[in-house]
Structures are given as C-alpha cells and as structure tokens.
Write a structure and sequence with these properties.
Distance between the termini: 74 Å
Strand order of the largest sheet: 1-2
Number of strands: 4
Oligomer: single chain
Helix content: 55-70%
C-alpha cells in the first residue's frame, strides 16, 4: 500500500491530473467561443447562414456515406485550431520571446559542425575542432 501511496503522491501524476482537468475546461471554453462568437461571425460574413453540410451524402449499394457531416467536423476542427493558434499560441510565443530576449547566451554554434556547445568551450565536443584555432583562422589579416 505504501508503494501505491508513493505513486499517487508523485509530482508528475498530480501535474498530469491538473493538466487534464484544465485541458478539459479549456476545451469547453474554446468550443463555446467558437460556437457562440466565431461561427455567428462567419455566418454574418457569409450572408446570415451558418454553414451546415450535414445533409450532404451519397449512397453506394444502399450504404449511406455522410460526407457532409465529415465536412462539418473538418471545418469545426480548422476553426478551433485557428482560434487556438491566434489567441493562445501566438501571444504565448511573443510573451516567451519577450522574457527570453534579455537572457545571456550560454551556448554557441560550432563553426565546423554547427552543434550547440557551451560559450566557454575551447574545443567542440562533437567534432573535436579546436575553437581558438578556428577563431584565429577565421579572422582576416590586419
């Protein structure tokens, strides 16, 4: 029983549970945003009707293929994905870039193999080129 208790109290499991709950709540929020604001906006732009393809289908040997319903789900996915991108991903990327721009660089690119190496390194750990020799050779003669 102590092993099970230890498993339940691990930080990763608690973080995962919180992420699932927040993700489910956020999913409802995004769906409401799309249903209540974005879709009516699209309807206003396209002439007052919300796009609905659910009645489109074709039959083959009595089997009904509801391709219109698939189109509805595809459009819903594209709208939700674009809302997430423009209202969550883009602002977060800008915010992270804003806070990371003042950090001092701790790595640099090796001029030979283009691997990331520490700034203080005098030799590349990947291709073993001596960085001070490369720096001297790269400098134009004075």
């Amino acid at each position: 029983m102590s092993g099970f208790k230890k498993f339940l109290m691990r930080g990763n499991l608690v973080e995962l549970a919180v992420a699932v709950v927040v993700g489910a709540t956020f999913s409802g929020l995004v769906q409401a945003l799309v249903k209540d604001l974005i879709t009516p906006l699209l309807a206003a732009i396209t002439g007052g009707r919300e796009p609905d393809f659910s009645q489109y289908y074709f039959t083959v040997n009595g089997a009904k293929f509801m391709y219109g319903d698939f189109i509805n789900h595809l459009l819903s996915f594209l709208i939700i994905a674009s809302v997430i991108y423009w209202l969550v991903v883009m602002p977060m990327t800008r915010l992270i870039t804003f806070f990371d721009r003042d950090k001092e660089a701790t790595e640099k690119k090796c001029p030979e193999c283009r691997s990331d190496i520490p700034v203080e390194a005098s030799r590349c750990a990947f291709c073993t080129v001596e960085l001070s020799a490369v720096r001297a050779a790269d400098k134009p003669p004075v």
